[in-house]
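Hi F.,

I've been meaning to write this up properly since the lab meeting, where we talked about keeping a consistent format for the predictions we share between groups. The idea is simple: the sequence comes first, exactly as it goes in, then the structure tokens exactly as they come out, then a line or two of notes. No screenshots and no reformatting. I'm using this chain as the first example so we have something concrete to point to.
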Amino acid sequence: AQLVESGGDSAQPGGSLTLSCQASGFSLDAYTVGWFRQAPGKEREGVSCIISDGSVTYTDSVKGRFTISRDSAKNTVYLQMNNLKVEDTAVYSCAADEVTCGLGPSAYRGQGTQVTVSS
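Output, unedited:
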């Protein structure tokens, strides 16, 4: 069982990117899935979470710009990122577990994907 992120790239401020978190070996439908990011020299922070009933949460700095969603058929959770800012530059990763949006010690975790926002 594993999670694989993709979609990281370079973008200009104001641009958009969509990250994907695809699971294999288990169904994401039964899990809470969190997106995290870690910028150089900073601690990892939670960006967004989606739980099994479809409820979502966002950290304040991305509200109104990022959207998390789930595609059950593709066993994938997406993070649509619009109006990107330089401060969104980070390695983004996803994690999944049953109740804590991927924060638990036994969560499945992906390897991360780099997002760089610069002009």
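Notes:
The CA atoms of residues 89 and 116 lie 5 Å apart.
The chain has a mean pLDDT of 96.

If this format works for you, I'll send the rest the same way.

G.
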